[in-house]
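User: Let's play a game. I give you a shape written as tokens, and you guess the letters that built it. Ready? Here's round one.
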């Protein structure tokens, strides 16, 4: 859904990462991942819906290694703006990951419960390797320590939208990552 300039100005407090900064970092991550998986021919990227759909699309188009693309959809149970830590599986991958090299692609690490759930779920499926690529991390909010192999940016503890991230399913398609004005979500 497109947003008018007026609507954006009304809800965005500040732009944390503009289009150029995101594109440059995504290119760097793609280059590193391409180098690390150069000898691998069965890489499976698993994008976590919905938030990771734009990051995944940009990242995968910059890869120079053969890979499969798949998605998983999860939702965290929230109480107001707070995660309860419980994660619900809505849609599983179609690809079997057993014996293959899996890279989970997430938009944001907040409390860490979602990535922790994913790592436990995929480990049980016995992939050959399992790594994580996360665009944004909010260290101030982390409750569960999870390994991140490829990280885009650390950000402050603000509600961010754009580039796939939402508030009440809005603002996902903004080209930048911006902090919402607190009065929008409080
Ligand atoms: C968001 C985000 C991550 C998760 C991170 O998903 O996309 O998957 O929360 O939070 P955590 O580290 O506290 O677990 P959300 O449940 O908002 O769903 P969405 O991606 O469909 O917007």
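Assistant: Ready! My guess for every position:
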């Amino acid at each position: 859904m497109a947003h008018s300039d007026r609507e954006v100005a009304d809800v965005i407090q500040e732009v944390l990462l503009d289009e150029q900064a995101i594109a440059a970092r995504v290119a760097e991550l793609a280059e590193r991942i391409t180098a690390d998986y150069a000898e691998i021919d069965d890489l499976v990227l698993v994008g976590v819906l919905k938030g990771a759909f734009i990051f995944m699309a940009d990242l995968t188009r910059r890869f120079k290694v053969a890979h499969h693309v798949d998605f998983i959809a999860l939702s965290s149970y929230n109480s107001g703006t707070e995660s309860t830590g419980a994660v619900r599986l809505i849609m599983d991958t179609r690809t079997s990951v057993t014996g293959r090299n899996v890279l989970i692609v997430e938009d944001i690490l907040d409390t860490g419960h979602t990535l922790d759930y994913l790592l436990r779920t995929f480990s049980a499926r016995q992939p050959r390797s399992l790594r994580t690529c996360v665009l944004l991390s909010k260290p101030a909010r982390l409750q569960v320590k999870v390994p991140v192999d490829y990280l885009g940016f650390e950000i402050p503890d603000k509600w961010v939208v754009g580039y796939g991230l939402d508030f009440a399913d809005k603002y996902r398609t903004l080209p930048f990552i911006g902090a919402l004005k607190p009065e929008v979500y409080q």
